[in-house]
User: Fold this.
Amino acid sequence: MEKHIAINGDSAVALAWKQIDPDVCAAYPITPQTIIVEKFAEYVANGEVSTEFVCVESEHSALTLCTTASSAGARTFTATASQGLAYMWEMMPIAASMRVPLIMAVANRAVSGPIDIHNDHGDVMAARDCGWISLFAENVQEAYDLSIIAPRISEHHDVQLPALMNLDGFILTHATERITPLDDSIVKKFVGEFKPLYPLLDVKRPISHNLMDGPMFYFPHKYQMVLAMNNAFRVTKDVFSEFGKISGRKYNIVEEYKCDDAECIAVVLGSSFGTMKEAIDQLRKEGKKVGVAMPRLYRPWPIEELAKLMKGKKAVIVMDKHLSVGSYGPMFPEVVAAALETGSMPKMYNYIYGLGGADTMVSDFVSVFKDIEAGKAKRINFLGVKE
Assistant:
């Protein structure tokens, strides 16, 4: 008989970590991530895990410690949000280039300024080019599941890259929902024993990490990361399939909702996928052929899956919860690039929405489709702001 529990998103991530029992966790508190490490610290204090938990003096120190711990051969987790991720930025590309498979939960939050503690995707989008795998959760169940899935992808010997598991701040981190957790033994078996490649503490095979890399080697080493990211597609599909067998929950590289016969589709990330699905249902009742998709795997960018999805569509709406000031939303040009592979470019529209946690209702998403239909939409649009 399945066991159901009511839990918020942050605590669900901590529960998954408890079941995995990593070797090392180093973190610094920041809203709305703090509950993750607070709850996990309780598990450590109660002796429910064997993890070495380190309270560091800053987020930069947290990622530095985690990078070195992972290099030494320890399964390592951390968590942060917003300015915390920004403070880690110096170490982000270093961790990736050192090929350490550490896992970071990011409670997505607007980046200051102005100062704001609510949800948008400004933090993770600012880090999107650092060489980390990036996964997005729609709800609390998915935040739990992806916390278990992420290390299997990241630690695979054909990948060996760090991974971000994104859950929307407050919308998911502090939302209490019903989830169905797996048994501890099933999680333990699924994740398996950590088998590091070339750990620093392997005295039989002494090596060095993160040395000076001149032009002759820097570019080839970056290209090796490209190849590892390409491998992540295959590995992610395999891990999703295996997880489906033990949980009954199916995940895809790109999640689709009523896209098969749709003439116009939206592309969103995170918890907005659920809100948009309700908007699609309402529009379908009016006879509108619309659908919505979410790139579950944001890095590596699923260009082939999106191109296949967009082929034959009349219009595509890219919903960005972040703004590259002076340009488009960050996801828009990447979706456009994928659309080039279709052979017949649909009309492309970019909507910036929800910045700083601005409420976006089902009715707002419905209005986006109706604006497209009425010919009112421009190439780039700002939902909920008077232009």
